[in-house]
Structure formats: structure tokens, C-alpha cells
Amino acid sequence: MPTPPTPIPTPSTLPFWAATARGELRIPRCRTCGKPHFYPRTYCPYCSSDDIEWELTSGEATLSSYVINRRPAPMFDRDVPQIIALVTLPEGVRMMTNIVDVPAEPESLPLGMPLEVRFEQRGDQWLPMFTKRTEKAA
After folding, report:
1. 3-class SS at 63?
2. Separation CA 36–CA 39 (nearest Å)
3. pTM: predicted TM-score of the whole model, two decimal places
4. What is the DSSP string of 12-27?
């Protein structure tokens, strides 16, 4: 079976991939206007400043939208079915990701479901995926 593709870092995404390799989910935030954004890019999409810092997130999210892909490209056959999702981080950004370790059925994927990040290695990169948030003991 073919190996799923590995993301190739670019100069603007290197801090993101370096963080995921450490088990951290970081997002860019503009130091000029203060707004976070995702996907990583060289300039702030709100004010065009190039003064960007990388903020550590909580690693939590909520499910905003999803599709259950039951016929992924051949390189992903080992992941059938695939839950491709849009999640919202409390820090104020949305990101495209996969939901893992949750049944690929609409009844198991209510919108607003609390999620937490987990990292899966693919080649030299660690990809942020999300799974249902577990309640932590007090």
C-alpha cells in the first residue's frame, strides 16, 4: 500500500511543524493588530503586518463541520473511512484536520463536540489530529 503524503514545510510553516514535532499546537498571531490566524503565512491577513509570533494553544477545539469520506484517494486506504473536519480553537481560528478514534457515523459527531489534539507521525512530520476530549479527573 502506498504511503500517505507527508507535508513539506515552507519557510512560513517551519515554526508550525517544529512545534508539532514537540507535541505542541501553535498558531500565528499578529503583534501589530493582535489577531490570530490560520493557515500560517508571512503577513497578517487582517492588517498586512509581517510582525508575527507563534502562540501556544490549549490543544482544545470544538467540531464545526465535517464530512465522512468513505472513498479516499488510494494512498489513504488504510484510513477508510476518513473524517475530514473543520474545528474551531478557543484562540479564535479554524483549521482543517482529521477526527480520529471516533466512529465515522453522524450520531458520534455532534457539532460542537469538545475535541483535543493528538499528533500522529507521518514521515518526518507530526500531524495534528483531533479526537473526542476526555474529561480530566479533578
Report:
1. strand
2. 10
3. 0.89
4. TTHHHHHHHHTT--EE
| Interior/surface letters 76-94, b for 16+ CB within 10 angstroms, e for the rest | beeeeebbebebbbebebe
What are the cell numbers at 131?
479526537
**pLDDT per residue over 75-116, tens digit each?**
776 667 999 999 999 999 999 999 999 999 999 999 999 999
| Angle, CA 119 vertex, CA 36 and CA 94 arms, to 5° | 30
Whether 79 contacts 65, CB under 8 Å: no
Q: Do 127 and 23 contact (CB within 8 A), yes or no?
A: no
Q: What angle do CA 36, 37, 43 make, to 5 degrees?
A: 105
Q: In 3D, which of 14, 45, 44 has the Cα closest to residue 31?
A: 44
3 state SS of 102: coil
Predicted confidence (pLDDT) per residue in 1-48, tens digit: 567 788 999 999 999 999 999 999 999 999 999 999 999 999 999 999
